[in-house]
Amino acid sequence: MSAQAPRMTRPRSAYQTTLTVASWCALVGVIVACIAWLWPPQLTALVSLQRMDTYKEVTGYVLVGLLAFDLSLALIKRRLVRALWLRTLQLTHRILGIAMLVMLVLHAGFAHAGFLHLTFAITMLVVVAGALLNLLPGDKLASWGQWTTAVHIAAGCLLAALALMHLYFVYTYAS
């Protein structure tokens, strides 16, 4: 019987801990949003706010702004050379993802119909894929990380296209 040396694990940095916490928060947010999507709560205050045109416009523009800024981070990330900037950008990207999830619920509520079902489902896919990237064990990143990244990026681009389509529909067909 051979004795194996105990495996030394390095302590997690504050950055790694923050990414992990953000990823778990995102997954919990997706679970709560999906449960609320299946069994919509009757929040009369939120429903009355969502009937106001100004509220719809403000939350919609905030969503589009967050999405545009978040997508621009992917382009900015390619240019960064300092690790601190890259880490800050990564944390910002995660926090924006969670903020967009919250804003989508505030903007559309839980009474999705047709087009919004697809947008909601793709948003959940983007958030879950992004969260999984931080939660995958290091030995799985080589195989699963590439697929998860591809799904996250492709779904994010599709989400941006759906947001533009939604803006087109709203301004073309709104009275």
How do the strands and helices of this protein lay out in sequence?
Elements lengths: L13 H25 L5 H7 L2 H25 L5 H26 L6 H21 L5 H33 L2
What does this molecule look like?
This protein is an all-alpha fold and 175 residues long. The chain has one domain (25-34, 49-173). It has six helices and no strands. Helix 1 (14-38) runs antiparallel to helix 5, helix 4 runs antiparallel to helix 5 (115-135) and helix 5 packs antiparallel against helix 6. 15% of the residues are buried. The mean pLDDT is 81.
- Main sheet record: none
Distance between the termini: 79 Å
Please, how many helices? 6
Assembly annotation: single chain
Number of DSSP E strands: 0
Structural class: mainly alpha
Shape: globular
Q: Could you tell me the radius of gyration in angstroms?
A: 19 Å
Could you estimate the helical fraction of the residues in percent? over 70%
Summed up, the domain count is: 1
Question: What's the pLDDT, averaged over the residues?
Answer: 81
Low-confidence stretches: none
List the secondary-structure elements in sequence, H or E: HHHHHH
Give a short synopsis of this structure.
With 175 residues, this protein is mostly helical. The protein is 78% helix and 0% strand.
Task: Considering the chains and any ligands shown, give keywords for the structure.
about 180 residues; mainly alpha; 6 helices; about 0% strand
